Amino acid sequence: MPVTSDDLLTRLRERGIAYQLSEHPPVLTVEAMMAVCGAIAGAHTKNLFLRDGKKTYFLVTLAHDAQVDLKAFRSVLGARGGLSFASADALREQLGVESGAVSPLAALNAAPDSVRVFIQDNLLAESRINIHPLVNTRTLTLVPGDLLAALRAEGHAPEIFALPDAAQSAAL
Q1: How many helices (H) and strands (E) does the chain have?
Q2: What pLDDT shows up at residue 31?
Q3: Judging by DSSP bridges, how do beta strands 129-131 and 138-142 pair with one another?
Q4: Residues in domain YbaK/aminoacyl-tRNA synthetase-associated (predicted)?
Q5: Burial level of 47, CB count in 10 A (0-12/13-18/19+)?
Q6: Number of domains in the chain
Q7: pLDDT tens digit string along 85-106?
Q8: Taking the model in full, what pTM does it have?
C-alpha cells in the first residue's frame, strides 16, 4: 500500500522536520501550479519521471522554469540508451502517485534501488523549496536540507546535479 500524503506528513513530524502545508485546487501542470501557488514563498519545482533504454527509472526535481533537452540530459543522469518519460502505469506502480502529483518524496513508495532520485543543485541554495506531498491539491514548503534528510532516512539518497548548458532546451 503506497504512503499517502497524510502518512508522509506524519513521518516528517516524527522526524522533527518542520514544514508549511498549503491546500489548493488540483494543479496538473507547472503553469497551473504557478497560477495557483506562485505566491507561496520559496523555490517552485517541477518533477520528471523518466526511464532509459535499460528500464532504469529516474525521478528528477528541477527548478520550475528549467528547460531540458532529454537527449543531452542522458549524460547528466548516466542513462543508457534513449531517455523518455515513463508511462502513467509505471508512475503508479513505481511511485504510487498520479500524473500531476510527482514529487521527490514519491520515492518513499519505490522499492529500494528501483528509482534513482536526482535534485538540481541550485534548489539546495534556496531557503525554502515547494513540492507536492504526493497529491496535487497540497504544496509542502520545507528547507532543502530537510528534504534531503527525509529522503536519506527512507533509503533514497538523492544525487545532486548541475544542469549544463548543453542539456538546457526550450523543449519542456
Answers
A1: 5, 8
A2: 85
A3: antiparallel
A4: 24-148
A5: buried
A6: 1
A7: 999 999 999 999 999 999 999 9
A8: 0.92
